[in-house]
Amino acid sequence: MARLVTEWVNVTGDMSIIARESGEVWFHTPSDAKQHVDPFAAPMRGVGAAGSTVGLLDGAINLGFARIEKRLARPDPTLVGYIVALVGAYHTSVDTPRNLQRAARRFNELGRPEVAAYLEERAREETGHDRLALKDLRALGVPAAERLVANFIPEGIKPLCKRFDDLCVQDYPIGCIGYSYCLERIAALKQEADIEKVQAMCPDGVDATRFLRSHSSLGSEVTHVEETIAFVASLPANDRIRVVQETYESALIMAVGYNHELLKSDAEMLKELQQAVGEALPYHLSSYPSRGAKDEARPAA
What we know:
mainly alpha; Heme Oxygenase, Chain A; 2 domains; 14 helices; 6% strand; globular
């Protein structure tokens, strides 16, 4: 019987993720034992497998979000909050094709055509997704949607966008795969019920869930996630390590940034939107259910 593949990656100074091909995942904290006694102290060197690779990648995302679990906000969804989320979605998608193409060119220069081909395909698949967010904003009656996204990037989204930009211009930009996996894996968790909740907030006859549907379990994200897992599993050990480490870093940045936005009240978000547009939003967008004082932050769980 063939021996099961076991992979491990140190993602922080005090935490490693261990995953077996059969699906088991552990979070390992180095003990006080001498380094040569700990079999996971040295970086892994062997081949990868899909079962262990998905354990490492998803474990990295879970660990990133767990770092702020006690501070995560869980507010009730509102239409104003959804508009801000659409603006954020625009900014996390508008530069994706350009960034991935830049990273692909670098891997061609490095003599890694297989990585370049993977990134070029991803760039083609992601082209035009920013326009879905714009269509949704227009459908909601947001005036001058192009002006809104040009003048406003949600504060919690800025670090995420910068992270992707920085990764794709590195001399060895393999980390951009970890970033992309993080966003696609989280998007793939959204189910039809989540989309129905958003649709229920929209005015009658308005479809403003194009971007959400595309970036959910109903769109292509599940396939993208499966393809990325298989591709990462085929990479050399050093590449797999860096992809997993970046998946963790991106998850942590995403968790902190999203939490920053979720803690805002509707009144705060509405003020930001109207300042960016330069005019008042339509009545149906600027009215929202009362949660007590309008300037209170939405409660954290």
